[in-house]
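Severity: low
Component: inverse-folding endpoint
Summary: output formatting inconsistent between runs
Steps to reproduce: submit the following structure tokens with default settings.
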């Protein structure tokens, strides 16, 4: 087995709905932008969302690899920027329930991945299940995502507490998602760190933050990661910085074998030869029955052992026809427990409604506890959002809910307003707030007095003066300017006429004087 190359990074969280899969996807793409070979391993058996976030549909999953139907190369999906994705499936999270053959196949695949890539990003399920803990302990670098939501902090706290009980002694790196800004993320982390240091005393470090950005919501709906959808957005900038810092952080760290953790658990020799990528199921000869009669020709019912022995024998030859399969099912059906049919009721036809009633009854008995209700609602909304790529609530109801629950300071509200205006501007190519429309609505109100109008007008004129260093020119001002220009022209014309009259008068005076002189020279009659 060659020396592993890829650094294994597990992305996890104490609860669902905190943007774990989105973070893993955008981080992986940001690392590929640094010319790194990256593979994302979707280890969330219950909600495998990586392919949904990337807008790609896998033909085969990890289950096909474990069953020996496909090899590793055939199940890997090509993503954008050269990213590779191993689509998950139910079974990978339940490592303890895999057969020895499947375990060897899985370990061989993990070894291959760690040799072919620079980074292997593991997207785990949320919570404190054994599968999550195993992936964290097997990785050399773990990222735990928290949000300002109180349940996120408490559940991540529980995750760290369980890790400590399992003797996990590596540093866990905390990433704050949905933070307003760097200062806000630091405040959230400090509050979380204080509780961790006081009650469980484990080693955690602040890794960074992802700023709350509507681009993240749009990216899920459009099935295009934020770093591709809007590279200049605030969230994309955070992912770029996160990838750079992370690459520096792990650059000098020694690369461990990711699969060695499970080998040690199962006592598997790491030098043992691993199976080929397309394993063939075989059986020892001494396990086959001496005499086997095909069930199709048997008139009397077979015992369970006879049916099982016949199946094993036929499977070992690799030549099973459709007729044989039908015969197996027919003979084995007799061993299936028969449940007497009961009259179908309306409740039986709607088990989901019954489940809902049970949940409602559970909450009602506990007087609808605040924290549990919030947890159920937020989790279901996130699951719906990720599964169907659309919000459960309308934009209007989501906005009203956001502002109804808002309890921040003036600066936070101002920031949210800026984000909303920016989103509107990008979507509709015009500003969200129309000043003229607002003023028109304001002055047309019956409650707007003449004095209020005068005050508003005076304030607007004053603001104009300060902004442009000149007084605002009304139509009357323009008319007055035109009148003054016309008066100036007329005044010039009048001056020219007066000058001409003066010249004429002077000429006439000179002529009269000359005429008088001539008359004086003439002899009198």
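Observed output (run 2 of 3):
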């Amino acid at each position: 087995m060659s020396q592993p190359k890829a650094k294994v990074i597990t992305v996890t969280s104490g609860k669902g709905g905190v943007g774990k899969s989105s973070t893993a996807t955008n981080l992986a793409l940001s690392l590929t932008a640094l010319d790194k070979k990256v593979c994302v391993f979707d280890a969330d058996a219950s909600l495998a969302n990586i392919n949904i976030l990337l807008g790609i549909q896998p033909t085969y999953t990890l289950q096909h690899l474990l069953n020996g139907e496909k090899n590793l190369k055939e199940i890997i999906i090509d993503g954008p920027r050269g990213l590779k994705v191993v689509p998950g499936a139910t079974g990978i999270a339940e490592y303890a329930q895999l057969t020895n053959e499947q375990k060897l196949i899985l370990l061989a695949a993990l070894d291959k991945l760690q040799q072919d890539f620079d980074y292997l990003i593991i997207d785990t399920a949320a919570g404190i299940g054994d599968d999550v803990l195993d992936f964290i302990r097997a990785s050399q670098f773990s990222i735990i995502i928290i949000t300002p939501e109180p349940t996120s902090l408490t559940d991540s706290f529980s995750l760290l507490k369980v890790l400590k009980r399992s003797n996990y002694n590596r540093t866990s790196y905390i990433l704050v998602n949905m933070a307003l800004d760097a200062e806000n993320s630091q405040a959230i982390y400090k509050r979380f760190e204080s509780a961790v240091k006081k009650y469980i005393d484990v080693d955690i470090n602040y890794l960074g933050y992802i700023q709350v950005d509507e681009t993240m919501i749009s990216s899920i709906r459009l099935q295009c990661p934020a770093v591709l959808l809007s590279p200049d957005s605030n969230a994309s900038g955070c992912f770029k910085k996160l990838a750079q810092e992370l690459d520096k952080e792990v650059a000098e760290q020694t690369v461990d074998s990711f699969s060695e953790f499970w080998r040690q658990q199962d006592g598997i020799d790491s030098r043992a030869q691993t199976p080929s990528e397309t394993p063939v199921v075989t059986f020892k000869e001494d396990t086959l029955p001496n005499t086997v009669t095909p069930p199709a020709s048997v008139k009397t019912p077979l015992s369970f052992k006879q049916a099982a022995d016949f199946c094993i024998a036929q499977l070992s030859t690799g030549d099973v026809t459709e007729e044989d399969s039908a015969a197996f099912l027919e003979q084995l059906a007799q061993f299936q427990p028969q449940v007497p049919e009961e009259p179908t009721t309306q409740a039986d036809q709607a088990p989901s409604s019954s489940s809902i009633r049970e949940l409602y009854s559970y909450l009602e008995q506990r007087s609808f506890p605040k924290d549990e209700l919030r947890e159920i609602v937020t989790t279901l909304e996130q699951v719906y959002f990720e599964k169907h790529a659309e919000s459960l609530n309308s934009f209007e109801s989501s906005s009203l809910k956001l502002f109804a629950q808002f309890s921040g300071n003036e600066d936070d509200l101002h920031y949210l307003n800026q984000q909303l205006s920016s989103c509107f501007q990008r979507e509709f190519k015009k500003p969200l707030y129309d000043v003229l429309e607002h003023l028109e609505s304001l002055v047309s109100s019956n409650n707007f007095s003449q004095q209020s109008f005068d005050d508003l007008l005076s304030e607007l004129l004053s603001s104009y003066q300060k902004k442009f260093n000149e007084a605002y020119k009304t139509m009357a001002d323009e008319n007055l300017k035109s009148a003054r220009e016309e008066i100036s022209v007329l005044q010039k014309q009048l001056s020219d006429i007066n000058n001409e009259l003066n010249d004429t008068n002077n000429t006439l005076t000179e002529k009269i004087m000359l005429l008088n002189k001539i008359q004086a020279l003439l002899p009198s009659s």
